[in-house]
Amino acid sequence: MSRTAAPIVVRGLEHWFGEGEAKKQVLFDVDLVLQPGKLTVLLGASGSGKTTLLTLMGCLRRVQQGSVTLLGMELAGAAEDVLVQCRRRLGFIFQAHNLHDSLTAMQNVRMGLEVHGPAATAQWESAAAHLLDLLGLRERLNYLPGNLSGGQKQRVAVARALIGNPDIVFADEPTAALDKESALNVVTLLKRLGTERGTTTLMVTHDSKIMDLADQIITMDEGRIVQDSSLS
Ligand SMILES: Nc1ncnc2c1ncn2[C@@H]1O[C@H](COP(=O)(O)OP(=O)(O)OP(=O)(O)O)[C@@H](O)[C@H]1O
Q: What would the CATH number be for the domain defined by 8-231?
């Protein structure tokens, strides 16, 4: 599909954890639409359902009830190969950066291309070096994670999420480990990718500086969307 249609449309999404007596509903009738190339911030207290929603939209969990249309594909009831195909078009940045300790910054970034197969990895070096440079890590390309600060590791994880040129980036508090300047650098890069390539970003953050840069702000409370700036 083109990047001009809404990359994500969620309708009537509900989600439960647990079985029997312990079964607990954590998402209630969630509706949202994300616009292509835009930065949307997802807000809400701890336990309000942000990560659950993010993982459902990111094909990391099965949709139980309701509809999630991702890049034109319905995820509810989708076959595993459709989910795999969808995941290849996504980039993930989580709080825990999960870098491989035995691989350099460059090699860790390359891991972001593994799912795309050998053709994608052929030209990886210049792309990886360019991204790391944009993220202020030009001097650290060949460092192992053990020799990088927490913030530098997080920026390597950001480069790894972006190297496959994803259509959508899901980021769960990606700037928590970063100083103010690095956090703004990451968000500025994501916004630039939005303008230049149409990359859509959904980010969980409580950083007010980032909220100022958001195109859309969605607020959750106890599993429901209670505010959506695109509707007001
Ligand atoms: N794997 C799980 N099994 C059972 N309950 C879960 C599971 N994951 C999350 N929950 C529950 O679902 C609810 C929503 O959790 P979720 O992690 O989505 O919230 P959140 O807004 O992302 O919170 P935080 O900001 O603390 O990460 C919470 O009540 C949580 O305890």
A: 3.40.50.300
Q: How far is the centre of ligand 1, averaged over its atoms, from the C-alpha of 47 (Å)? A: 5
> How far apart, in whole angstroms, are the C-alpha atoms of residue 179 and residue 171?
17
Atom of ligand 1 nearest to the CA of 220: 21
What pTM did the predictor assign?
Answer: 0.91
pLDDT in tens, 175-213: 877 888 888 888 998 999 999 999 999 999 988 888 999
Burial code (b: 16+ CB inside 10 Å, e: under 16) for 135-171 equals bebeebbebbbeebeebbbbbbbbbbbbbbebbbbbb
DSSP labels, 157-180: HHHHHHTT--SEEEEESTTTTS-H
ipTM above 0.90 for this complex: yes
